[in-house]
Write a structure and sequence with these properties.
The protein has 310 residues and is of the alpha/beta class. It contains seven helices and 19 strands. Bound molecules: NADP nicotinamide-adenine-dinucleotide phosphate. NADP nicotinamide-adenine-dinucleotide phosphate binds next to α5.
């Protein structure tokens, strides 16, 4: 049977859309993708989500949202969406996943964004062997050894602060001499004696030991071009994210970075019946709470669209 509404993604945007759509009686089918719960499941404590004055673990927050949506009738399919198309005759959307093909009258894309790597030679082989984008997942493996975080934003600062629990020393490698992170986050990092900022620096090359594990990097000074070697057991990349929008093909319009464009004041995309919410469609705010808010709006927009078809 054709679905009324399919929601793709289970971060704050997808779950909030699912809660609203389920409460509206739409019984949405939600595709979880490979990373159930999205990026927040790889973070530690979330201190700025309203309603949790003591903070809440990202994974606990996502689990609670998941339960809340399910309670109202959202259904989960633990499959990864591969492509999205639209039947020209019926106007139905066809969502092709790792498990099959599903048809729906409306779709909400809430697939978030994926951590970016600089694309240096040998990088792919090193991921999981001293190169990662998730301190929460991998930090505890690197106890009493030197590690580095690359980036100057909130993520880089958060990861660096977290890693001081384990590492002997945390280098913060940033390409400029000023952090982009919020003032509070900057203060937390710059006042921590275990964190050493390396300003105006980028990684030019990785070096491995005989076992293929990261052993050192070549640092390049972005001002002078001078290089030097820095022994490290792990590098945690925090240089931003790429929106997961490619699977939607020509059904959506994107900006130069791949973020889905929505119509002003709406979550509607270029295709009627197709909506987008959260980090995949938000190059500016990228917060859990703003993603959740956009998920709510997408569900309301989808509900109105479905009513207009009746
Ligand atoms: P971001 O703010 O875009 O920062 C990315 C950082 O990586 C920037 O410092 C950038 O340098 C650097 N960078 C980008 N490309 C690079 C490259 N090729 N080589 C070296 N460095 C590179 O990303 P983010 O830190 O992931 O944060 C994303 C959003 O989530 C932000 O809105 C942030 O406020 C939010 N966030 C909030 C929290 C929190 O409130 N607790 C935690 C995490 C994230 P430049 O500065 O030179 O551009």
């Amino acid at each position: 049977m054709d679905e009324k509404l399919i929601i793709i993604g289970t971060g704050p945007a997808g779950y909030t859309a699912a809660i609203y759509a389920a409460r509206a009686g739409l019984s949405p089918l939600v595709f979880t993708g490979a990373q159930l719960g999205g990026q927040l499941t790889t973070t530690t404590e979330v201190e700025n989500f309203p309603g949790f004055p003591q903070g809440i673990m990202g994974s606990d927050l996502m689990f609670a949202m998941s339960e809340q949506a399910e309670k109202f009738g959202a259904r989960y399919a633990y499959e990864e969406v591969l492509s999205l198309a639209q039947e020209s005759c019926s106007g139905l959307f066809v969502v092709t996943t790792s498990g099959g093909a599903y048809k729906a009258k409306a779709v909400i894309i809430a697939t978030g964004a994926t951590a970016r790597y600089p694309g240096l030679p040998g990088e792919e082989k090193l991921i999981g062997h001293g190169l990662t984008a998730c301190a929460t997942c991998d930090g505890a493996f690197y106890r009493e050894v030197p590690v580095a975080v690359v980036g100057g934003g909130d993520s880089a600062c958060e990861e660096a602060a977290f890693l001081t629990r384990f590492a002997s020393e945390v280098f913060l490698i940033h390409r400029r001499d000023q952090l982009r992170a919020s003032k509070a986050m900057q203060q937390r990092v710059l006042s921590n004696p275990k964190i050493q900022p390396l300003w105006n620096s980028t990684i030019a090359a990785y070096h491995t030991d005989a076992a293929g594990e990261l052993a050192a990097v070549t640092l390049r000074d972005t001002q002078t071009g001078a290089t030097r070697e820095l022994p490290l057991k792990c590098v945690f990349m925090a240089i931003g994210h790429t929106p997961n929008s490619a699977f939607a093909g020509a059904l959506v319009e994107r900006d130069a970075a791949g973020f889905i464009r929505t119509l002003p004041g709406s979550t509607a995309t270029a295709t009627p019946g197709l909506f987008a919410a959260g980090d995949v469609a938000d190059p500016v705010y990228q917060q859990a709470i703003s993603a959740a808010g956009m998920g709510c709006r997408a569900a309301l927009d989808a509900e109105r669209y479905l009513l207009s078809l009746e």
